[in-house]
């Protein structure tokens, strides 16, 4: 395996953004699991784990991955979807969480474990106040819920933890 070509393929795959959360790459999200290159054939295989089945974004991500890898010299790249272990919002990187906050989307709290009361669990990404309320279970996309801050009155999207 050529390390250089492999990392070039990895870099190309890592540039693909999530169609729903355009501020995040699939690497930020933890959706990009692995990029390997077959030593004999040079064929690149990209492994991804979908966020959740309600997100039609995965088809777009697969197409964008193939396009990005074709542009990087791998027109025959294969995209493999792996469902186990299941993706969780815990896989979003620290850089990804910072980008979400900068974009005005409240980053998800830890999934699983001890449940946090929703009224205490979501901070306003605009002013940081904890005094927020859920306005709608569905935000601008199926993956987000709509919240409003009682302190600054600004609405914001919250990426659902699951
Ligand atoms: Zn606020």
From TrEMBL:
Q: Please, which domain of life does this record's source organism belong to? A: Bacteria
Checking InterPro entries in the record gives: Fe-S_Maturation_MIP18, FSCA_dom_sf, MIP18-like, PaaD-like, Zn_ribbon_PaaD
Using the record's annotation, list all stretches that form the MIP18 family-like domain: 10-74
Identify the Pfam families for this entry: FeS_assembly_P, Zn_ribbon_PaaD
Instruction: List, for all copies, the residue spans of the domain called PaaD zinc beta ribbon.
Output: 120-159
The region annotated as signal peptide is none
- Which species expresses this protein natively? Plantactinospora mayteni
Designated name of the protein: Phenylacetate-CoA oxygenase subunit PaaJ
């Amino acid at each position: 395996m050529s390390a250089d070509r492999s990392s070039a393929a990895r870099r190309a795959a890592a540039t693909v953004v999530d169609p729903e959360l355009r501020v995040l790459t699939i690497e930020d999200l933890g959706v990009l699991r692995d990029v390997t290159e077959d030593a004999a054939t040079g064929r690149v295989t990209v492994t991804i784990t979908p966020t959740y089945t309600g997100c039609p974004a995965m088809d777009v991500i697969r197409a964008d991955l193939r396009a990005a890898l074709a542009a990087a010299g791998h027109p025959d790249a294969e995209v493999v979807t792996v469902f186990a272990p299941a993706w969780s919002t815990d896989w979003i990187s620290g850089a990804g969480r910072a980008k979400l906050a900068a974009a005005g989307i409240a980053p998800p709290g830890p999934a699983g474990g001890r449940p946090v009361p929703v009224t205490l669990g979501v901070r306003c990404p605009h002013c940081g106040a904890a005094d927020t309320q859920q306005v709608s279970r569905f935000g601008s996309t199926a993956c987000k819920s709509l919240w409003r801050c009682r302190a600054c009155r600004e609405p914001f999207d919250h990426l659902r933890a699951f």
